[in-house]
Each structure stands twice: as C-alpha cells, then as structure tokens.
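Following the same procedure, the fold was encoded as tokens, giving this record:
***
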Amino acid sequence: MVEGFSRPALIGGLEELVNSAAGFTTLDLELLEEVLSRYDMAKLWAATGWFLERFQNVFHVPDALLTRMEYTVHVPGRTSSAGSGAASLSNAGT
C-alpha cells in the first residue's frame, strides 16, 4: 500500500489503489508504521494517514496511531516531496 501511494501511476492510479486497499481483510498497523518510518517521507505518512482515517472503523485504527501519524507529517526537516500526496487524495475514491 505504501509503495502504491509512493507511485500511484504504476498501480493503476489512486482510485484503484484506494479501492483495492479498502478490500484488504486486515492491515498490520505496526508493520505499516515501520515501513513508513523507513521511507521517511511526509507525503507517504499523510497519504497513508488519510487512508487509515477514512477506513478507521474497517481496520480498527486507534486514534493514537492517527495522532502519531499527523505529528510525524509535521516534523520539521521531514522530506515532503511536494507536488503529489495527501492534497490530491481528498477527492480520491469519492
């Protein structure tokens, strides 16, 4: 999922990614956080956080995780890779 948010064009676009990921039966939230920390890119934290917030009830995402993700996006010095990311997600899959 993180790789898809990194390069959505390679997996059929953002809508395809969101629709596919929404069909997952489960998400390993600890592993997801670990993968995001390895990428260390604010846009991926933001995009993944957006997805998890949107499907919070489906994947039983605790509020504490979303808060950590939001904080991580706003840490000074974190790579943002502006131009793509959460801003383009607000209309995805709707």
Q: What stands out?
A: Residues 5 and 44 are 6 Å apart (CA to CA). Confidence is low (pLDDT under 50) at residues 82-94. Residues 42-54 form the longest helix (13 residues). The helical segments are 2-6, 14-22, 29-39, 42-54, 56-59, 63-73.
